[in-house]
Amino acid sequence: MKEISLAAPPLPYYLESGFRAYTAGDTHPDRARLGMYDLLFITKGTLHLGEEEQTWSLTKGQYALLLPDKYHYSVRPCDSDCHFFWLHFQTVTPYIIRESRALPLSQFVLPQKNEITLHQQGEVADPERLALLWGQLKEMSVSERSLSFWEEQRMFTEILRTLDIGNKPDEQSKVHRLAERIEAYIKQHYSDDLTNERLVEEFHFHPNYLSRCMKSVYGCTPLEYLVAYRIEQSKLLLLKTQWSIERISEEVGFHHAAYFSNCFRGKIGLSPLAYRKQYIRSGTLFPT
Length: 288
Known about the structure:
Layout: E1 2-8, E2 13-22, E3 31-32, E4 37-44, E5 46-51, E6 54-59, E7 62-66, E8 71-74, E9 82-90, E10 96-99, E11 114-119, E12 121-123, H1 127-140, H2 145-166, H3 170-189, H4 196-203, H5 207-218, H6 222-240, H7 245-251, H8 257-268, H9 272-277, E13 280-281, E14 284-285
Antiparallel strand pairs: 1-10, 1-11, 2-9, 3-8, 4-7, 4-9, 5-6, 5-8, 7-12, 13-14
Protein name: AraC family transcriptional regulator
InterPro entries: Homeodomain-like_sf, HTH-like, HTH_AraC
Keywords: DNA-binding, Transcription, Transcription regulation
């Protein structure tokens, strides 16, 4: 089953939505390169739909995400009444298609990076709640634009969040939550003397399991993540302070300035001092 990954931030943004009620014999219109994402959620009956070489018979409680640059079409007319919500949205960055995996390995990302991942077609975990959200979003379309804009974006984001969380198997959700807890702990204590032993004491799991969880979500072990996060914090201090390399090294948790410099050069390709100098103009750092 294919997954569609959308980089965030920036978040996808809402365009419009609605509700359609088909009767027996009705078909979904054929469209090519619509230029926006088309998200469909079935609340009654069956909708027979295709995109390029894929075909689906979407039933109550299922959804499909049609891509902006593909050809989608009706496979055959509805056999009986079919009701569904639709929603158009757009993104700033292009999507990525990949085959579903039990534990998707992601490329190592910086702490502020994320992505929204949806099955292109799937079953909704809580269809009643999603139908309620979608109905509220549809009602906002007839409200005053100045009043509805932010609420529409909020509800649209909640719909995406529901689908993003809902497509994860329970075991995968546990792994993802543990990895996020480890990440948060590292961010809170990165300047401390963090070791595998301390993480074991905090989370009560074998260090190998902690490493597997982090690798499955972030593509690195906890200690690799720790070093990368310390480097990111040191970059901020290099730009926003005139502290010595030795002091910055200590502030972000490195015991030795030489080891810090080696790690920094390995990640950034420059020494800490060279990194700082490229942002200095007339002997003064850029203002904070």
